[in-house]
Design brief:
Blueprint: H1 12-19, E1 45-48, E2 56-62, E3 65-69, H2 75-86, E4 92-96, H3 102-105, H4 108-114, E5 120-123, H5 124-132, H6 137-144, E6 157-159, E7 165-167, E8 170-178, E9 184-190, E10 195-199, H7 215-228, E11 234-237, E12 243-244, H8 245-263, H9 279-292, H10 305-319, H11 348-359, H12 362-367, E13 369-377, E14 380-383, H13 385-395, E15 400-410, E16 413-421, E17 428-437, E18 440-448
Parallel strand pairs: 3-4, 4-5, 5-6, 10-11, 13-18
Antiparallel strand pairs: 1-2, 2-3, 7-8, 8-9, 9-10, 11-12, 13-14, 15-16, 16-17, 17-18
Helix pairs in contact: 2-4, 7-8, 9-10
Protein name: MBL fold metallo-hydrolase
Biased composition (Low complexity): 332-343
Domain Metallo-beta-lactamase: 54-239
Length: 450
């Protein structure tokens, strides 16, 4: 299309914005100013400690200051996060804990020292689990990592799970889940933004810790989590990158089911090691996991975490009664699940993309794509999630996207007729074609509707 040949030069800048497919421009061709979101609507800040065992802490912009979520593994890690938090120039109004695992509470003392005016919150169940430490996790953490504190800092404000919190001028919904990834897990949800802070219940492309041998309980909790917060848009996990809530839940579920399916034959009657997973079987299972989920960093600084996970799930499966296994824990074939249309007739990752555009959520938009995804925008190619994120930051965020109709839909593919309005006003119609594999978009091609 040659807009310039049909229009005066003065209009060519506006045409260039259309050729850019999603750039924000005003009617006179100049870049449209983008309204800055209110502080309480800004995306959460994040500090991730270094690998191995990288852990996240977040800070939520609230009217009365910042609300922090989780406190990292050690005081040293926490002090590095404190330095980043202080760069915001805002006070800290509250500190929230999601669960009792050492890598999320070990830095609480350093946070409390830096922000003594900020109360530390946890559910009554999480606080009890921390104080009793029946599994001996804190002694184990100290023996493995000398930087883990000799004494813990506990919550000074507790609440019943499911009770809404008012912190820093924000209302946060809460829920407490038991016998999943951890004995007790608290999540925090902002209904005004759709942001869900989920701790370790659904993590982004990492190797989880299954050493407590509760994979079946975890699968049931994932079902409960999705049911409890069906409108959640973006999930901020304890490890790994944020992403579309439904996609992260689905991905975690698929990983756990795949893990169980790989381990089950090793504890079946007649297997070489009997009910125990032998060394050779461990090696074979670990290799299969690496092929299916390559390069995923571990959530813990434990070199043998994969082997320990295999042994723990082996013990769990050998003790299960198949006749009583919940439906949530049933094995599935080792293949990518077929994506069925979700709300509005859209595949889940496509719906996540549309929702992220309209929610002006850059993290969720990038998270809807696979790490090696390709996007073609009217002939311009962007390879990989990082490049797509930068494209979206410059040309998408701030606009609005309306799905006019689903022009084509088949397993793993959808083509939409959409109307995109740069800056939220005006706009043009285009076709967006998406290829989907599992819970992520692997290719998107944007063209004008002629």
């Amino acid at each position: 299309m040659n807009y310039i040949s049909r229009r005066p030069i003065a209009a060519s800048l506006a045409a260039a914005c259309l050729i850019a497919a999603l750039a924000g421009c005003s009617n006179d061709g100049e870049p449209a100013p983008r309204a800055k979101p209110a502080a309480s609507q800004a995306a959460p800040g994040r500090y991730a400690s270094s690998n191995p065992g990288s852990v996240n802490t977040y800070w939520i912009q609230a009217p009365a200051g910042l609300v922090l979520v989780d406190t990292l593994r050690t005081p040293d890690d926490a002090r590095k996060a404190v330095a980043e938090i202080r760069k915001t120039g805002r006070p800290v109004a509250a500190i929230l804990l999601t669960h009792s695992h050492p890598d999320h509470v070990g830095g609480a003392g350093a946070f409390h020292e830096a922000f003594p005016q900020a109360p530390v919150y946890a559910s009554k169940a999480t606080d009890k689990t921390m104080r009793e430490d029946e599994r001996g996790l804190y002694a184990l953490a100290r023996s493995a990592n000398p930087a883990f504190p000799a004494r813990l800092t506990y919550a000074d404000r507790t609440f019943e799970g499911g009770t809404p919190l008012q912190v820093g001028g924000l209302r946060l919904e809460t829920a407490t889940f038991t016998h999943g990834e951890s004995d007790v897990a608290d999540v925090y949800y902002r209904s005004d933004t759709g942001e869900l802070f989920s701790g370790d219940l659904a993590t982004g492309k990492v190797t989880p810790a299954l050493i407590e041998g509760t994979s079946c309980g975890w699968l049931q909790v994932l079902d409960q989590l999705g049911t409890r917060f069906p409108a959640a848009r973006t999930m901020y996990p304890g490890h790994g990158a944020a992403g579309p809530a439904r996609a992260l839940i689905d991905e975690q579920r698929q990983y756990l089911k795949a893990f169980r399916a790989l381990v089950r034959p090793a504890v079946a009657p007649g297997s070489p090691g009997g009910k125990a997973v032998g060394a050779g079987e461990q090696k074979s299972i670990a290799a299969a996991l690496e092929r299916a989920y390559p390069g995923r960093p571990p959530v813990a600084d434990l070199p043998t975490i994969v082997q320990e996970n295999i042994k723990a799930v082996g013990r769990e499966l050998s003790a299960e009664d198949p006749a009583k296994t919940p439906a949530a824990c049933a094995d599935q074939p080792q293949q990518e699940p077929r994506q069925e249309p979700q709300q509005g007739g859209l595949l889940a990752p496509v719906n996540a993309y549309v929702t992220a555009v309209n929610g002006r959520d850059l993290d969720a938009l990038a998270g809807a794509f696979a790490q090696d995804a390709e996007l073609v925008d009217v002939g311009r190619r962007f390879q990989g999630r990082a490049a797509i994120r930068e494209w979206a930051r410059a040309e998408v965020i701030g606009g609005s996207l309306t799905v006019v109709k689903v022009a084509e839909s088949r397993p793993g593919h959808q083509r939409l007729l959409v109307r995109f309005a740069p800056g939220g006003q005006g706009g043009f119609e285009a076709y967006y074609a998406f290829t989907v594999n599992g819970s992520a978009i692997t290719r998107a091609e944007l063209t004008y509707a002629r």
